[in-house]
Design brief:
With about 290 residues, the protein is α+β, with helices and mostly antiparallel strands. It contains 10 helices and 8 strands. Helix 1 crosses helix 2, helix 2 crosses helix 3 and helix 5 crosses helix 6. The longest helix is centred in the N-terminal third of the chain and has 19 residues.
């Protein structure tokens, strides 16, 4: 329950300081989490980045004030954090499908994104299979790409395309041949969330000890304790569902805190699209 309470505290803080546009550092501090882990937890549970949530809430409040008062549109633009009325109108239209002027005259339908409230529901009847692994530092080699997330990823996160390219140009096959570590699968790894740019670093990699092959970069992951979750089923959806269960069920029910290390998906099965595909999620804890 501590995670639920801390997340609600952070959400309440966001609501109280919406017009001040608080930084991710200030918000995550309310939840006693690092900016990286708070943003990741929030996004997995809500399908929104923190920036997306605050932007939608501000535009919801702006629409309410627009229809209930005679406040000038230019004043509303500045109040809700836009440098120009044009920028405000563009963002308003994107969310509501109409301009501020049209909304004031009752033209179009407004979209209200309501304040988030975390509710506890009965879950956990279906077991989650996992093991605890203590590991010394290890190295992965592969390719890294900066990918958009949140509203910046409206045209796609770029991650499926990255995998498509890696499969088509033989990168995945090369990485498979380089596997010589504990994790026997090609890895999808996320780290380094950048709140200002709305991006995250994504790696397609393999655990490998030895010289870094030409054309690849390397990343050394420090010693840590890992929770390794079994993920069974059609991989594209099974992985997403597993992450949601980890953050909504497993973490609140166990006494571990998240470590400041990359989150790893290990694609072990030769057929990722089979209902019997068996893969893993590696989550560092402390």
């Amino acid at each position: 329950m501590a995670l639920v309470e801390s997340l609600q505290k952070a959400i309440d803080y966001m609501e109280e300081h919406l017009l001040e546009q608080p930084t991710i550092e200030r918000i995550s501090k309310q939840a006693s989490l690092s900016p990286y882990h708070f943003q990741r937890t929030f996004t997995i549970l809500t399908d929104l980045t923190v920036g997306d949530y605050m932007r939608r809430r501000r535009l919801t409040l702006a629409a309410q004030e627009l229809t209930r008062t005679d406040c000038k549109i230019i004043d509303l633009a500045y109040k809700y954090g836009y440098e120009t009325p044009e920028a405000f109108t563009k963002a308003f239209r994107k969310q509501h499908g109409c301009t501020p002027s049209e909304a004031r005259h009752g033209i179009g339908k407004l979209q209200s994104y309501n304040r988030l409230a975390i509710q506890v529901s009965l879950k956990g009847a279906e077991p989650m299979k996992y093991r605890i692994v203590e590991r010394e530092d290890f190295t992965v080699v592969g390719l890294k790409r900066e990918c958009p997330c949140g509203e910046n990823a409206e045209g796609g996160s770029g991650i499926p395309e990255f995998w498509g390219e890696a499969n088509a140009d033989g990168t995945v096959n090369k990485l498979t041949r380089l596997l010589n570590g504990n994790i026997q699968g090609v890895l999808g790894m996320t780290c380094n969330y950048n709140a200002d740019k709305g991006t995250i670093d994504y790696w397609i990699a393999a655990e490998h000890s030895g010289k870094t092959p030409d054309g690849f970069s390397s990343f050394t992951i420090p010693a840590s304790k890992w929770v390794v979750f079994e993920v069974l089923g059609y991989a594209p959806t099974a992985m997403v569902n597993a992450w949601k269960r980890i953050y909504s069920e497993w973490i609140p029910s166990n006494g571990y805190a998240l470590a400041e290390l990359p989150a790893i998906e290990a694609y072990i099965s030769p057929d990722l699209f089979s209902p019997d595909s068996l893969n893993e999620i590696w989550l560092a804890v402390k």
